[in-house]
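Notes from hallway chat w/ T.B., transcribed later so I don't forget. T.B. wanted the structure written out for a chain they're using in a teaching module, and asked if we could keep both sequence and C-alpha cells in one place. Agreed to drop them here.
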Amino acid sequence: MAKFILCFFYLGNMRILFAVNSNGLGHATRCVPLIEESLKYNHEVYILSDYRALSFLKNEFKKKIKKYFQLKDYSLQNRLFTNKKLSLNKFLIYFPVYLNEIRKEHVKFVEIQKKYKFERIVSDLRLGIYDTAIPSYLITHLIRVPLKNIKLTSDVTERAFYILKSKFKKILIPDFEEESLSGDLAHNFRFFRKEDYVYLGILSMTKKKQSKKKIDYFFSISGLEPVRTIFEKKIFSSLDKIKNKKIVIALGKPESKLVKKTSNLEIYGFLDKDKQSKMMNRAELVITMSGYTTLMDLAELEKKALLIPTKGQPEQEYLAKYHFEQGNFYYKAQDKINIPEDLDKAMEFSGYKTSRKTKSSLKKFMKIIHKG
C-alpha cells in the first residue's frame, strides 16, 4: 500500500538520468535493478553510457527508456588497467589526462542538461555527470584504491573522491557497513564524514531461484579488451582437461549472437539478465573475474566461485585476495590457472552468505531519490 501511495505521488513527476561507466559490464548490470525500480514508480528514465555497457542497457530496456545518450567514456581505464603491471610513472602521467577528460565530459553534459532538465542524476562512476543545482548521486565502492608499490595511494584516491564529492549530494556505496564485500576499498575512511555517504547494500540483477537442471561449471567471461580475450583463450585451452562435467560459458560480448551446444558444453556470445541469472542459479561453481558486481551477484545467490582477478587491475586483485583471506572464495592469478585442480579447491570454500539482499537496497535507494 505504501509503495502504491509513493508511486501515485511521484507519477510522471521526475526525470531521472542514469549515467553508467562502460569499464566492463559490471557498472551497467548493477544499475539494472535501480533502473527497474525507478520505472516501477513511473519515473521518466534516461540512460547515458558508452560501448558494450550502452549496448547491454539498450538490449535490456529497449523502449522503456525515454532516451539513450552515448557519451565517450574515459581513456584512462584502457591506458592504465591493461595486462601489464601498473607503474607509478604511468599513474602520474595519465592522472592529469583523466581529470581533463572528466572536465570535458561535464562540459558536454551541461549542454544535454540544458535541453532535458533532469531532476535527479544517478552517476555510476561517471564523475563529470552531475548538476550541483539538483540532487546528484555518485555510485561507487572504489574509493580507497590500493595500487601495488605506490605508497599511500589509498589516502590519495580517497582524498580525490572527497574533493569530487562536493559536486554530488551524496555517495551511494553498494555494500554493507559491517561484514563488507569491498573491504578497505569503501571502509575505514580518513577524510569522509558519515554524512557524505550511505551504504545501500548489495545491488544485483540476479534473482535466486531453485533449478532441477544443474550444471557443474559456469564460466562467465567479461572485462576490457584485450584482457577479456586473453582470459577467454586461457579458459578454452583448458576445457579438454575437464571430464564428465556439464559446462556453460558466457563470453560477455553483447554484440555477438554466437550459440554453440554439445552434449556437455554450451557456449553463448552473451546472456541477457534472465539467462545469466538462470545459469548462475543452476551452477554448482561459478568461474569468473573478481569484479565487484560479480561478487554482489555471488552474494545474492550465495554461490561458490573460483575468482580470477583481471591482471593489472588492483581492485580485482585486492578483492580476490581479501575474500580468500575471509574464507569466502578461492582465487588464482590469470596466468597461473591450473584446471581442473583449481576447480576442486574452489568447491571447498563456503561463498559469501548474507540475508540482506538487493530488495532491501532498492527500498533504501528509492527513499533517498524521493527525498532528494
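Follow-up for T.B.: The chain has a mean pLDDT of 88. Might be a good example for the class.
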